[in-house]
Amino acid sequence: MTDDRAVRTEAYDYELPAELIAARPAARRDASRLLKVDRARGRYTDAAFPELIERLAPGDAVVVNDSRVFPARLLGRKPTGARAEILLVRPESDALEPFAPFDEADTRLWRAMVRPGGKLKPGRTVDIADGFGVEILDSAPDGTRLVRLAGDGDPWSLIRRHGRVPLPPYIVRGARDGSGGQRGRRAHDDADDRERYQTVYATPAGSVAAPTAGLHFTREMLAAIEARGVRLVSLTLHVGFGTFRPVTAERIDEHEVAPEAYSFSPAAARALNETRDAGGRVFAVGTTSCRVLETVAAAGASAGGPFEPGRGWTKLFIRPPYTFRAVDALVTNFHLPRSSLLMLVAAFAGRELTLEAYAHAIRERYRFYSYGDAMVIT
Known about the structure:
nine-stranded mixed sheet; 19 strands; globular
């Protein structure tokens, strides 16, 4: 029976003290805390992230999203001298396949988010650097703009030279001492961000935000997982702006997630089918990996699955109530209130247990969001 309250967006709200939003990563990737949630028993316990290995058994599979964040944030000025920002989302080309490598796309046309949105109308330009500008061509109903990169050199050379790591807007740092807090300013990336806002296994470029659950893994930890007899399986979902767009509708079933490109290889499908056949469990690292697995499992169900290789676009919005076909355990960070990501977690663990676990994490001063701590739900 469906909980009527569970379909209301307000049911996924919570209060978070601003000082618990992690402004910087932990000293080491695996130095994060881990909240272990047992959905069957309705319990949660505090741990350190490396203790995740103890939850894995020989024959299990750990699935990661290997998408690489590209320097999608372009900072510039309008002809008036006022500051402006362009966040490139994906290349825009009729010839572009649903999952073409971003950095091989020879196109100057991009779909982008812009700030200030009310001022950057079609026909306006933003100067990024000498010899490099962005022209606003058109507006789309989803709030994005069609833009053209104008400058000398190929588009990716311009992006790599002048683009910034697209840190989320909730990452703020003090102007002088680098600390976070309400009096800080939205962070600009530095050398540390360029390394740490990227997983150690990131490969194909295309994401505008990191698949943050994977930021906690070190190469040594991945080697220890494999040594335990656990398969490491990679898939790709290029994280777009839709994943993090707030749910503004009163009911969650009125919200739509913007499509994101994914790729799930025959080798990955074979590995997970073998895991299932042998009775192993599938651990999804991150909500992005979870969404791809559930997408391809739905395809596999119609093709004799359980996992079917493929690539394309997914708009899957996982929310209560939802029956999971593919995922047995979920490793994830702590997400924003009223977000589709929090709703996915609630669909997996149950809304009440999820909010209880979040309240516990707040009391225990866990660090939240992209650079924050993690939880594993089994």
